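Narrative summary of target 7.
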Amino acid sequence: MAKTMDWFLEKYGESHQNPTNKIIHWFCVPAIMFSLFGLLYAIPFPVERGLFTNWASVFYAFALIYYLRLSIPMFLGFLPIGTAIIFGINAIYNAVGADAGRLALISLGIFVVAWIIQFIGHKIEGAKPSFLEDVQFLMIGPAWLLHFIYKKIGIKY
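Modeled conformation, tokenized:
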């Protein structure tokens, strides 16, 4: 059976029922996304690092392909989100004097704190994080949040 976006969202939602854990995810999933892009951006790139010449942009391109495979509306939703994150990371990189090390430290701090809070949320939930079952759920967390927005404004995903 091919796994669909609906299947992933339903399965992901099973371990995200507790209201406190849901709220935690609304803050921490975007923070993890942002910090992951920051960590990837900080890795040396074969050509001069720029807005779209960095490992975060490469990862973003593959993520978009992943979402496109599952759902065109999710793909379209992540186009502006990921692009905004890339612009934000680039702005931070420039604000810290184009120092990849400083960007990496800031991103690492956000990443670690957000994951600690996520694990606290799952402790409150009483359920393991979904990605321990299938690593693809790391990509589904952001889509799970976006699907709530889509439902609210009447967009089918």
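Residues 100-125 form the longest helix (26 residues).
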